[in-house]
Amino acid sequence: MKNKHEYDKLMSQIKVVKDRVRGVVNGTYNGMYLHGRAGTSKTHTVCSTLDTLAVNYAYSNGHLTPIGLFDLISENRDRVIVLDDVSAIFNQPIALQLLMAALGSRHDESGGRYVRYKTAKGDVVVDFTGGIICISNLPLKGHHNEILSALNDRVFVINFEPKDEQIIALLEMLASKGVGGVAAKNCQTVCRFLVNECKLRDIRPTVRLFVDKAIKDFQLYEMGGSETHWKDLIVSNLEQQLVELQHPTIDLSREEQVEAERRIALDIYLNFEEPSERINNWKERIGKSQAAFYRRVSELKKEGRLP
């Protein structure tokens, strides 16, 4: 690996994040706030650490209402809760009050924190003894000022912003082990191409660009699922527009038609028992002959999709 020094440096720095997670797990800390640009493996670092520690944690990603947050705390009152990319709750006063209560400290040093939610039938109180880990693309200063001071008082805040060289080193390491069932050699080829194209366009590389997009483009092409070469697909994604293709294309129109007919034949075969019903339905939907139906059925059996 060309950037082993940068990779080792990143792994060394990540130990601080892992230790903060350990502190939340064992109850030393009430919570932490990890932020940084998207695609730098923040979530993976947190969740893999929790998995290594065999922690039964609760994970929430995306939109979360105040009552949703309270229910999450109530249902996991003695567990670690990971709030991933739920920045909107910091702009909701009720959700903020709940979060602040869950991250506060009791003066009796019992470790529990009372989280109260007012309903039409009265107050519901949860004695929360767990911890909360927040992951966001935004720093605290990206929210309201009162949130900045309130959260800083209650949790450990870490800006997770690896250098591009460190992210490239991380991508090379991931590629060397293979990703998503793709062989290491192919992953390394994709990685080199992605990194070079990012440099040409002054785009900062990310783990997500590699794992969730570039590798998926390669897989789609290799399985015969795209007319466009995987390299052109990656370039199109980086530029987020249609691009002039640099590699030969494949005509999939005939293959796609055959596969569509197989799916229809499979549906008919499984939903009708009488041969005459199968053929009539086939002709109604496709307009092709009985021989064509049995040809597709035979192909499905060879592929193991039918017994």
How can the largest sheet be summarized?
5 strands, parallel
CATH architecture of the largest domain, please? 3-Layer(aba) Sandwich
Task: Write down the overall mean pLDDT.
Answer: 90
Percent of residues in beta strands: 5-15%
CATH homolog superfamily of the largest domain = P-loop containing nucleotide triphosphate hydrolases
Major sheet strand order: 2-3-6-1-7
Distance between the termini: 47 Å
Query: Strand-and-helix sequence, N→C?
Result: HEHEHEHEEEHEHHHHHHH
Low-confidence stretches: none
Number of strands: 7
Strand-pairing-aware structural class: alpha/beta
Radius of gyration: 26 Å
CATH topology of the largest domain: Rossmann fold
Name of the CATH first level of the largest domain: Alpha Beta
What does this structure look like?
There is one protein chain. The protein is α/β, with parallel strands linked by helices. The protein has three domains: 4-159, P-loop containing nucleotide triphosphate hydrolases (Rossmann fold, 3-Layer(aba) Sandwich), CATH 3.40.50; 164-239; 253-302. 53% of the residues lie in helices and 12% in strands. It has twelve helices and seven strands. The strands form two sheets. The chain has a five-stranded parallel beta sheet with strand order 2-3-6-1-7, with helices on both faces. The chain has a two-stranded antiparallel sheet with strand order 4-5. α7 packs parallel to α9 and α10 runs antiparallel to α11. The longest helix has 22 residues, at 4-25. It is extended and about 80 Å long. The two termini are 47 Å apart. This is AAA family ATPase.
